[in-house]
Amino acid sequence: MKNKLVQISLLVILCSLGLSNLSYGQDAQISGGVDVDGTWYLGEGLKGGNYFEYSLCEINLNDCSPIKLKMWINGEIQNISETLWDAKIVIIDGNKVIKGSWGLGKTTPEPILFDEDLFDYAIAIKSSLNWLSAFATANEDDRIHGPQEFRSGKWGNIGPIGGGSDAPLIPNRIETIDSPVGTVDAIVVGWYSGSDNEMWIVDDFPFPVKALTYAKTTSDNAPIMYQFTLLKYEENMVNDPFKDVEETIQKEELLGCPTEFYDYVSERAATDTHSMMIQYNYSPEIPIEGCNIDWKINFISKYNDIEILDQIHYDIWVVDEQGNKLRSYAQDIGQNNLFNEFGQVHHLLPIEEKAGLVRYSIFVHGTGPEQEKPDASMSGFAIVEIEIDENPLLEKLNDGFISASKIPTWVKNNAGWWADGQIDDEAFIQGIQFLIKEKILQIPPTSQVSISENDVIPTWVKNNAGWWTQGLISDDDFLKGITFLVENGIIAV
Q1: Are 105 and 121 in contact (CB under 8 A)?
Q2: Within a 10 A sphere around the Cβ of 467, how many other Cβ atoms?
Q3: Helix, strand, or coil here: 357?
Q4: Which residues have a Cβ under 8 Å from the Cβ of 338 and sit 6 or more positions away?
Q5: Number of other CB atoms surrounding residue 453 within 10 Å
Q6: Cβ-Cβ contacts under 8 Å for 213 (sequence gap 6 or more)
Q7: In this structure, are residues 273 and 379 in contact, taking their beta carbons and an 8 Å threshold?
Q8: Measured between alpha carbons, how far is 406 from 409 in angstroms, rounded to an integer?
């Protein structure tokens, strides 16, 4: 009995000091640490020429509808005094293709600079693929958040960053998996509070190769917080894999589409089977051909008009006059149907139909846990008829009479800093070299761009750069100023 009391007392002391991996109750923790030498941090082994493709979903991005991320590390770029990885990005989000650039940090390869069109995706990446940066970075001087040992019992507690509890993040086990990296022994790192939340990492590989985690909720069926899988990986890729990729996101600007939504049409309708009420809100009031409709939909109990139902299996269709399905939003983004844990959904749907009356069907397959067959007694649909306005710019775009500027945001940032005197001429020239390399600014193919110490860039060109970053002059006007520098030998080519 005395020995047992000593053991219990020792356990109490260890727990009070935060030194024990043991706990009792429903969410008992697994002891951490695996029998592998070495350490890992986010970005380990990252270098120029790396190419990655991931399938990824994140709870705050389209209700975890999956996107495809393609990323190529082109080399390095300078951000004032900081050197960043120059990452070329393509996002495939349903029928949208967004192309741009990110500047990734060296200590932690998170997006620090990013094109405006990629903002939402950069935030989603930080919350999913880069989630482990909260625990493991390249900073060897940081004893808490530096490289983490595989043998360590705990990498930290997940409570402060969205786990919803004080469960420890631990290296749990070694698992042999097949991936684009090869057949490898992956270390599974996770936390186990209510659900198994896990990421698979490979020593000397920059990012986790896959992950599946769940949001903390009182529901018996927690929604996925984020999930991703590495689809493709290559090393030493020299040529730009995205040079022939045509992006679609810029059509919004070219077609005069609204990108911010304020005044919503709000209505409520019962499903055809009277299984529930559907509160739908859409904006703008008169959507424009070729643009987007912003949808906010609540699924409400027919017995209580303030009770929002949960675990909804649904879709949004376009139907003909007889109700026959012409198009499915779920199928557009590669799914059989959509699922929402909380009964409140938000989607930005592209309008692919011609101007005129378009019939949308908010179709409910049923209710129930995500991985189970839905309860068909709760199925039904509500038809929403919306008049789509004609867009005369759509025909011009299709005929090639208007085109999109492809100047990335970081070049515009450089121009603004240069105009304000925060960076020197040489740093500004890096942006010009990029424009020439991407054929946005045309010069003879054998030319190089440089500037000598004796060359003086006219003040009006700096003024142009400042006005351009403030939106006071167009991209074309800015490029004309740069062309002047080239043609007059101020920038040597």
Answers
A1: no
A2: 18
A3: strand
A4: 63, 65, 313, 314, 315, 316, 329, 330, 345
A5: 5
A6: 190, 195, 197, 198, 199, 224, 225, 226, 227
A7: yes
A8: 9
**Residues 298, 344 contacting (CB under 8 angstroms):** yes
| Beta bridge pairs of residue 79 | 82
Distance CA 137, CA 186 (A): 19
- State the angle between helix axes of 409-419 and 459-469 in degrees (0 to 180), rounded to the nearest 10: 130
Successive 10-residue mean pLDDT values, the chain, 493 residues = 37 36 40 88 96 93 87 90 91 85 92 85 93 91 87 82 65 94 95 89 96 77 87 94 79 77 93 96 93 93 92 94 91 81 86 93 93 91 96 67 57 79 77 69 52 61 80 74 72 58
pLDDT computed for residue 206 by the predictor: 97
DSSP run (H or E) holding 467: helix 459-469
Query: Cα angle at 145 between 142 and 150, to 5 degrees?
Result: 110
Compute the distance between CA of residue 295 and CA of residue 302 in angstroms, rounded to an integer: 21
Pick the closest to residue 251 from 365, 70, 437, 396 (CA basis). 396
Cβ atoms of 361 and 317 within 8 Å: the answer is yes
In one-letter notation, the amino acid at residue 197 is N
Cα–Cα distance, 296 to 307 (Å, whole number): 16
- Domains detected in the chain: 1-28 (no CATH), 39-234 (2.40.360), 254-395 (2.60.40.1930), 409-487 (no CATH)
* DSSP H stretches of helix in 362-458: 392-398, 409-419, 425-437
The DSSP line for 294-339 is EEEEEEE-SS-TT-B--SEEEEEEEE-TT--EEEEHHHHTT-SSEE
The gap from C-alpha 170 to its chain's centroid, in whole angstroms, comes to 26
Backbone region of residue 442 per phi and psi (left: phi > 0; alpha: psi in -120 to 50; beta: other values): beta
- Cis preceding-peptide flag for 284 (omega within 30 of 0): yes
